[in-house]
Design a protein that fits this description.
The protein has about 280 residues and is α/β, with parallel strands linked by helices. It is built from twelve helices and nine strands. The chain has helices at about 5-10, 30-35, 55-65, 75-85, 100-105, 120-130, 145-150, 160-165, 205-215, 225-230, 235-245, 260-280; strands at about 25, 45-50, 65-70, 90-95, 110-115, 135-145, 170-175, 180, 190-195. The strands form two sheets. The protein has a seven-stranded mixed sheet. Helix 3 links the parallel strand 2 (about 45-50) and strand 3 (about 65-70). The longest helix has 24 residues, at about 260-280. The model has no long low-confidence stretch (mean pLDDT about 95). The structure holds S-adenosylmethionine (SAM). S-adenosylmethionine (SAM) binds near residues 50, 52 and 71. S-adenosylmethionine binds near residues 49, 56, 72, 96 and 120.
Length: about 280
């Protein structure tokens, strides 16, 4: 690592902003670990969220065919321009990642590699995963507690785990101590990988239905599934029938369900709905 973030920022008379989640990685081994986890091929296109001072960007530029890096903080642009000058395959976009349309940024497949600003981790995931052109892989440094929720398995599933794993396989690559960053964050961190290269566990045609069910199922964590699902407008008998058809015990809690069980339940509800539509058309 050429320049420690502290030195670099001091040279430019810039104070890091906590409100923008500015904790810069300052451990070269960690940076390479992140790049390695993304398994970047020479023809891969990469999106980086929040390049900061360009430490990760440089390594990405050395491995990928192109890097598109979106940075919100205008104060960092002159630093990025200098640090990234040797790399002509990097495009820095000044803006908010949540205001960028990934479908407009990439017409090709792409990977996301980022040490994300923690205050918008959930929003970033929703933004990229709901895009038409989704990344094929995401390697993200996130708060450790969030990483645990994303990679959770039954009986400790969370709505975040279900809604992320709907799109792909989530694994933890490594955990990071606060000392890997400058300034040190108040929380521990972890690097996670979301592999989105396989088709989703559930037919994308049922995506809306799946999320309605999961949201209702997790609406009151301590309540049984059969009670939480009532808010979807089905009566008690209908819910019990749907759960029975999906082979799920309605007294269970949402956090114990596997992705496959959510899938079965989604399919049963979809079948029930299309049957109902057919019946109402016939009468
Ligand atoms: N990639 C650098 C590194 O690893 O050292 C910096 C990571 S730092 C945790 C997060 C970066 O995201 C900061 O540079 C911050 O200014 C930027 N950022 C914060 N909010 C953003 C947003 N909404 N869109 C794009 N970048 C943002």
């Amino acid at each position: 690592m050429n320049n420690h973030p502290k030195t670099l920022l001091r040279n430019y008379h810039i104070e890091p902003k906590k409100s923008l989640g500015q904790n810069f990685l300052c451990d070269e081994n960690v940076l390479w670990r992140i790049v390695d986890a993304a398994d970047i091929a020479p023809d891969d296109h990469v999106l980086e969220i929040g390049p900061g001072l360009g430490a990760l960007t440089k390594l990405l530029a050395q491995t990928a065919v192109s890097v598109t890096a979106v940075e919100l903080d205008a104060r960092l642009l002159p630093i990025l321009a200098t640090e990234l000058a040797p790399y002509d395959n990097v495009t820095v976009i000044h803006g908010d990642i949540l205001a960028q349309n990934p479908d407009a940024l990439f017409t090709t497949p792409y990977k996301v590699v980022a040490n994300v600003p923690y205050y918008i981790t959930g929003a970033i995931l929703r933004h990229l995963l709901s895009a038409q052109n989704k990344p094929t892989m995401m390697v993200l440094t996130v708060q450790k507690e969030v990483a645990e929720r994303i990679t959770a398995v039954p009986p400790k599933m969370s709505l975040l785990a279900v809604s992320t794993q709907f799109y792909g396989r989530a694994t933890t690559i490594t955990t990071l101590k606060a000392g890997a960053f400058w300034p040190r964050p108040d929380v521990d961190s972890a690097v996670i990988c979301l592999d989105l290269s396989q088709s989703p566990a559930v037919d994308p045609a049922f995506e809306k239905q799946f999320f309605r069910l999961a949201k209702a199922g997790f609406s009151q964590k301590r309540k049984q599934l059969q009670k939480n699902l009532r808010q979807l407008g089905h009566n008690k008998t209908e819910i019990n029938t749907l759960l029975a058809q999906a082979n799920i015990d309605g007294t269970r809690r949402a956090e114990t369900l596997t992705l496959d069980e959510w899938k079965r339940l989604t399919e049963e509800v979809a079948k029930w709905r299309s049957g109902k539509v057919a019946t109402s058309r016939a009468t």
